[in-house]
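Cross-check.
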Amino acid sequence: MRRTRNAKIVATLGPASSDPAVVRQLFLAGVDVFRLNFSHGSHADHSARFEVLRALEQETGRPIGILADLQGPKLRVGTFGDGPVMLTQGQPFRLDLDKAPGSQHRVCLPHPEIFAALVPGAELLLDDGKLRLVVERCGDDFAETRVAVGGKLSERKGVNVPGVVLPITALTEKDRRDLSLALELGADWIALSFVQRPEDVSEARALIGDRAAIVVKLEKPSAVERLDEIVELTDAVMVARGDLGVELPAERVPAIQKRIVRACRKLGKPVIVATQMLESMIESPVPTRAEASDVATAIYDGADAVMLSAESASGKHPVVAVDMMNRIIEQVEADPAYRQLIDASHTSARPGGDVAEAVCCAMRRAVALLHASAIVCYTSSGHTSLRAARERPESPILSLTPRLATARRLALVWGVHSVLIDDVVDADQMTERACSVARRDRFAEAGQFIVAIAGMPFGTPGTTNLIRIATA
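Predicted model, tokenized:
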């Protein structure tokens, strides 16, 4: 079950991909981490999918990561008395807390926290940015606006408030219930939606502890403004280009995507590029050439993973979409220019860094000089393998761990192939085990170099301090 690529694939499960046979096909086609989207489906649906994934993991013997994606605070307008209304440019339109059905002139916006943050001149985006309102006058329970970009407005459509930090938490009551289920089931990663500030990450960490790792979805301009602080606090990042592209001009999103990927690579935090990657494959069995280039760009930039949303959850061709993404990644990584770009974008270890940085920096150099066939990391917490992946070495990273939870989390990380083993007690046993597993799983042939790194004493998290070169 060894993958022959470094970048990973995340795929969302949904109505089109809940059958165990389809889930198995998705896995065989290349999925490394499965996403459960808590914006849709019941707790029973997610529990059933979780059981399917764990049964598949047991059958195949390969650790499978599960990412539970929380909905976050969804802001929506209320209902209309006579169906959708048509708003025209220049007309006045009122938003208020009155729950009465809306009309051509007003509608309920049942979120007092929005009114508390609005100021004259602020913009409100409706229905994924298709309509745009500008606030002229506002109070604690209303906003008088003028339509800047008109169109049809239906009930329950979403509202975005760019440029304003809203006084709301990233975890709603629904999110807390969903989080409780996800942790009870044993999700490996928890994705936080609509994070605005570092404090949102700290709040989630207090609830989650070490029971799961955290993925921050960057989809708010306010979060991008505090990017480095948020990346420092989280375990991984998702470039959620859908909502990010609503609140920011489309032409700014590519540069921001690259900025986020660079920030994550610098700090050694896994980064997922997501949203509309192969969007046309929801209907078509073939992507557009622009979509193929979009996936390729993320891989050339060194992203840890790329993600499918509706393509695998509700599309007509979920398995074909995964296979296409897999082939694009393999093609990019076979391009000689790929390694040149990865090396050129590599961030050197910081002067005055810790011992783990020094060991991994030496590992990268040793692999390049010796053309080692594999890097073998012994890790309990995953810390050693994450540090090794930050270096984006030429050779695959064989991560040996006694903890299944660690192996599952590392399924998201660039270049890492996890294998469960028993604990080792000394460096000689470590070397023997490393060579044995590397030969068995076809990472190395007899006589080839491998570079092993670990922390001593063994089993102590965060103590990467040992490098050893051996022949398989």
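The chain has a mean pLDDT of 94. Residues 355-471 form a domain with the Pyruvate Kinase; Chain: A, domain 1 fold (CATH 3.40.1380.20). Passed to J.P. for a second look.
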